[in-house]
Amino acid sequence: MHSAVMLLGVLFGLLAQASTLPVKNSTGVYEGKMRLKRKYSDEIRDHEELTAMDQILAVNSKMRAPRGLSFREGDIATSFVRSAINCPGNACLWPKAVDGFVYVPYIMSPLYDDMDRITIETGMEDISSGTCVKFVPRTHEASFLDIQPRYGCWSFLGQTGGSQTLSLQTPGCMWSGVAAHELMHALGFVHEQSRSDRDHYVTIVWKNIMADHMHNFRKQLTNNLNSPYDYSSVMHYGRYAFSEDGGPTIIPKPDPYIPIGQRDGPSALDLHKINVLYNCGTNE
């Protein structure tokens, strides 16, 4: 009996020592599993790295397109391809009033609570405070944004005429940067890495992109408004957007470590491009 007790004591001692030893390559195995698991850039483990587009893709990856609509580039609702910064005669732009401002009327669903409305209005103010574009509650205007908590975060591109839905699902899309992103689509802007000159500034890593999402990385025939490429645009995809295996799908150049995309709201260059597109400061 005494020897049995001693043997149990030795075994417990060995187990206690083993529990304090590091497990070889345990971190590497875990990270490998995370890498294989990751399908969208929203799954970056460091939440601080999330961009507005990462969050949009995270929400939209779980939704079906509403009947009659399709989506390109992840969040642009369309039944045909067009870009307001390339549309003939600026027919896709919101009109400028005689006082030099561009008023974009909107209605907002009563399903939003107070915090949701504050978040969306913050996205509006982040644009309005630096441009001549002003978002105003609709009174009688024929063309207006109908902001609804539908499934996903998405918008049509530019003014389509009449009532046009802009979807900001709650709570998934309730970031002011996400609201600003979709509002910029409604003003006519495509994603930054879709610019016609993007290959001078980023490398698209096609082998890392999910096969059925490669079309989201097509370049557009854009008028780039004589503006520099903006790695910090709220309209830029995140580094791992539509990643198949967790590897990067977009690498900046010449410095591959330049941060791309963000979630805080329009960058200084985003606001500059809005001002150029809408001729802010000049009356037409």
Automatic annotation (TrEMBL):
The active site is at E182. InterPro entries: MetalloPept_cat_dom_sf, Peptidase_M12A, Peptidase_Metallo, ZnMP_hatching_enz. Zn(2+) binds at H181, H185, H191. The gene is hce2l1. SUPFAM superfamilies: Metalloproteases ('zincins'), catalytic domain (SSF55486). It comes from the Eukaryota. PANTHER family: DISCOIDIN, CUB, EGF, LAMININ , AND ZINC METALLOPROTEASE DOMAIN CONTAINING (PTHR10127), METALLOENDOPEPTIDASE (PTHR10127:SF838). Residues 83-281 form the Peptidase M12A domain. The keyword Protease applies. One of its GO terms (biological process) is proteolysis. It is an enzyme of class 3 (hydrolase). This is Metalloendopeptidase. GO terms for molecular function: metalloendopeptidase activity; zinc ion binding. Binds 1 zinc ion per subunit. Keywords: Disulfide bond, Hydrolase, Metal-binding, Metalloprotease, Protease, Signal, Zinc. Residues 1-20 form the signal peptide. Its EC number is 3.4.24.-. Its cofactor is Zn(2+). The keyword Lyase does not apply.
